[in-house]
Amino acid sequence: SSLRQHEFQLYLQPKVTLKTNQCTHAEALVRWHHPRFGNICPSAFIPVFEKNGYIMELDRYMFEEVCRYLQTRNAAKKEKLMISINISRRHFQNPAFLEEYAEIKERYGIADGQIELELTESVFFNEEQIALVKQAVFRMHQLGFRCSLDDFGSGFSSLGLLKSFDVDAIKLDRIFFEDIAQKKAQDILCWLIELHIQVVAEGIETEEQLDFLRTTTCDMVQGYYYARPLPAAEYTAWLEQFHSVE
Ligand code: C2E
Ligand code: MG
Ligand code: MG
Fold first, then answer.
1. pLDDT tens digits, residue range 100-142?
2. What pLDDT score does 131 carry?
3. What stretch of H or E contains 214?
4. Are 152 and 173 in contact (CB under 8 A)?
5. Which tens digits make up the pLDDT trace of 190-222?
6. CA 62/CA 85 separation, integer angstroms
7. Ligand 1, atom 15: nearest CA belongs to which residue?
8. What spatial distance separates the first Cα and last Cα of the chain, rounded to whole Å?
9. In terms of CB atoms within 10 Å, which of 57, 150, 176, 208 comes out highest?
10. Which residues contact 91 (CB under 8 A, 6 or more apart)?
């Protein structure tokens, strides 16, 4: 019923391209404005929804919200935006979800490459699942979605995963940047960034972290340094402001 009452809202957080200092990318993040309990953050309800299965409906709802936003944005004839969406590992028990997502994407007239699906390492929890995810990533590309590996470095990240899965981007977890002053952390980061795969640094909060990233070939930066996740309409306003200052 919370879905029907539109208690869930689409927030967008900018990802800024370092080289050009332009913002054409964002990540979609859900916020629950509960009439009785107020704002509930995703870490409090996503794990519950993953257990009881409601995550499927929530992710689908968010996906459609993103398509709706992009449709309006495309109609405004501004520069094309690209939005990434978090996909729960639960979806991989039924890879047919991709066909439904592709249908929605078509219905809203969203171009190929405008939507990226973010997976976390937790999707790869056993051999059987690994085979399923491999097929799903292949199908994602056929259907015009990009695919990224989220939270890299937060769990038992394996370079093998990067080798075996044809992802278009990796998102380095903010944990990487917490001890940026350490030489070892810098070396690992530089090495990852040199892989020929798009790299997004997450959770960047300080000028110091940004200065370090500028010495690397990291592609995009996402974090409070630029902006917190914003309600979709505020994100549109933020974009105008950001580009007018540049
Ligand atoms: P995530 O996908 O790794 O998203 C990034 C999280 O880091 C977001 O937390 C964001 O608000 C936060 N963040 C961004 N910049 C900074 C920063 O500079 N410093 C700090 N400390 N944090 C920063 P949020 O929005 O609370 O979401 C938490 C997680 O919940 C997400 O992590 C994602 O795994 C999940 N999630 C959010 N929305 C959805 C959704 O629609 N579907 C699914 N399946 N999962 C979602
Ligand atoms: Mg994410
Ligand atoms: Mg992340």
1. 999 999 999 999 999 999 998 877 777 778 888 889 999 999 9
2. 84
3. helix 207-214
4. yes
5. 888 877 789 999 999 999 999 999 988 899 999
6. 8
7. 223
8. 43
9. 150
10. 56, 59, 97
Question: What is the whole-number distance in angstroms between the Cα of residue 131 and the centre of ligand 1?
Answer: 27
Residue 53 φ/ψ, nearest 5 degrees: 90, -10
Task: Give burial (CB, 10 Å; 0-12/13-18/19+) of 79.
Answer: exposed
Distance CA 20, CA 23 (A): 9
Q: Which two tokens stand for residue 228?
A: 């917190």
Length in residues, the chain:
246
With b meaning 16 or more CB within 10 Å and e meaning fewer, what string describes 156-190? ebeeebbeebebbbbbbbbebbeebeeeebbeebe
Give me the numbers of helices (H) and strands (E) for the chain, helices first please. 9, 10
What does pTM read for this prediction? 0.96
Residue 172, strand partner residues = 152, 201
Q: Is the CB of 150 under 6 A from ligand 1?
A: yes
What residues form DSSP beta bridges with 71? none
Number of other residues whose CB lies within 10 A of the CB of residue 7: 14
Expressed in angstroms and rounded, the spacing between residue 228 Cα and the centre of ligand 1 is 10
CB 246 within 8 A of CB 17: no
Ligand 3 is a single-atom ion; what residues have CB below 5 A from it? 150-151, 202
Q: What is the residue with the minimal CA distance to atom 30 of ligand 1?
A: 42
